[in-house]
């Protein structure tokens, strides 16, 4: 089963309203997602996979933000770095273009989100592969994924 179909099922079971976007050219960058959906970079959420000590964590930031690794390291009390593609594939079974806070495998690891993500009401998140995106409300996204919100700015 395709991951975006799993995500649709979970969204519908939770009663969450969504819009699904599809592009055969893919959404590898915030710029492509913004251009296709018509939403600015601050509404596009990036799910970054970080190596915190020996485990992987997910950190969600707006498309116009960079991940502050020093802040996250200080918060967790661990050395934190960006995870490499091989670790992500081996440990989570996800290709880089498929990263999404909604991905079932990411729901199994610790999830964090920048408070800046809460500044917009509707957000665009990855659909579990390079070809799909979802628009959902930030409120619904937080209720469904339950990330720890961090003041990283």
Question: H/E series, N to C?
Answer: HEHEEHEHEEEHE
Please work out how many helical segments DSSP would assign: 5
The secondary-structure class comes to alpha/beta
Q: Stretches where pLDDT falls below 50 for ≥5 residues?
A: none
Rg calculated over all Cα atoms: 14 Å
Describe the main β-sheet briefly.
5 strands, mixed
Strand order, sheet with most strands: 4-2-3-5-8
Instruction: Please provide the count of β strands.
Output: 8
Helical fraction: 25-40%
Terminal CA distance reads: 38 Å
- Mean pLDDT, to the nearest integer, reads 95
Label the overall shape. Answer: globular
Range of strand content: 25-35%
Quick rundown:
The chain is 28% helix and 27% strand.
Write the layout of secondary structure elements.
Blueprint: H1 3-13, E1 19-22, H2 30-37, E2 45-52, E3 55-62, H3 69-76, E4 80-82, H4 85-92, E5 111-114, E6 122-126, E7 132-137, H5 138-145, E8 148-150
Parallel strand pairs: 3-5, 5-8
Antiparallel strand pairs: 1-7, 2-3, 2-4, 6-7
Note the main attributes of this structure.
five-stranded mixed sheet; 153 residues; alpha/beta; three-stranded antiparallel sheet; globular
